[in-house]
Amino acid sequence: MDDAFALALALSSDRLQILGVTTAWGNTELRARLVERLLKEMGHGEIAVATGPKNGGAGAVFTQARWAEEFPEPAKGWPDAIDFILAAIRKNPGEITLISLAPLSNVGALIEKDPVTFRQLKLVVMMGGSVRQGYGDLGYLADRGPSAEYNIKMDIPAAKELFASGVPIEMMPLDSTQLKLDEVLRETLFRQKTATTEVLQALYQEWAGFPGNVTPTLYDAMPVAAILKPGLCPVTAMRVRVDDEGFTRVEPGAPNAGVCLHSDSDEFFHFYLPQLLRAKGPITPQ
Fold first, then answer.
1. How many helices (H) and strands (E) does the chain have?
2. Longest Cα–Cα distance in the chain
3. What is the pTM of this model?
4. Which of 107, 147, 148 shows the shortest CA–CA distance to 124?
5. What confidence score (pLDDT) does residue 237 get?
6. Of 11, 116, 135, 152, whose CB has the highest number of CB atoms within 10 Å?
7. CATH fold of 2-13+94-276, please?
8. Could you give the count of Cα atoms lying within 13 Å of 23 in the half-sphere of its Cβ?
């Protein structure tokens, strides 16, 4: 659910030139149909979409599958995500920031196919990992310790490759990304009736139709927000090691990532909602 809110934020800003959106993990073709529909309905059908390898996710529920299935798949399918990203890096060496919001299967495939080109990225900004606070720890009580965070745990070898790659990394772990879009914030957002909020509301309603889904956590929106306004999630240089269980351990040594250990949820949403509502697109009649 949070991927859509992150992409909507990226689309809202003229400061970002989005070269393409690639899908990772699970049914990447069905995910591409969702992304293609989202982009078109938000008025950004010109942005390229590419599909990554179908790795993992076999037992996961795709809560927005029906919305995605309503959009037709192109007769020739989509370009290969790995080739697409490598070509973009070669064309723009040292200039591209890769925003990674999923299990790192695509990132691992990039490194394995062409590590030299991968190292020509300017920066990788990622949602992933857990340093002091795990799932469900919003900072109100004593820290219960870290969790093996999903994006890292689902492809541990790829995560290890990324942190050993030498590419600059900014990491937004669970410590700073458990941002709850509660019912007051949802009402404030959805009642605006823009092209963007209509898409997000439709996707939210599909997601909320599954047991236990009420309040979405916008983990993936923070990396995009931090690019647009770095003060929302300031990073500290650290040495991060991914262990065999998918934990991100901080250890002594030369830093290989900037890690954001704290963010202010209220400050984030005071940035996020006004920024999102600047997005261009037709207004739906009230």
1. 13, 9
2. 57
3. 0.94
4. 107
5. 98
6. 152
7. Inosine-uridine Nucleoside N-ribohydrolase; Chain A (3.90.245)
8. 22
Structure tokens at 137: 């720890």
Tens-digit pLDDT profile for residues 48-82: 999 999 887 766 789 999 999 999 999 999 999 99
Q: 114 with 84: CB under 8 angstroms?
A: no
Which one, of 144, 162, 137, 139, lies nearest residue 152 by Cα?
A: 162
- Residue positions counted in the chain: 286
Give start and end residues of each alpha helix (H) in the chain: 2-11, 28-41, 65-69, 81-91, 105-113, 115-118, 150-153, 156-163, 174-177, 183-190, 195-208, 221-228, 265-276
Euclidean distance between CA atoms 284 and 43, whole angstroms: 13
Amino acid occupying residue 148: A
- Cα three-residue angle 220-85-109, rounded to 5 degrees: 80
The single residue listed with the structure tokens 């269980």 is: 245
| Residue 278 neighbours by CB under 8 Å, 6+ apart | 12, 13
Looking at residue 96, its amino acid is I
**Tokens linked to 120:** 């020509």
pLDDT per position as a tens digit, 227-259: 999 999 999 999 999 999 999 999 999 999 999
Cα(162)–Cα(148) distance, integer angstroms: 17
Burial of 271 (0-12, 13-18, 19+ CB in 10 A): middle
- Taking residue 172's Cβ as centre, other Cβ atoms within 10 Å add up to 29
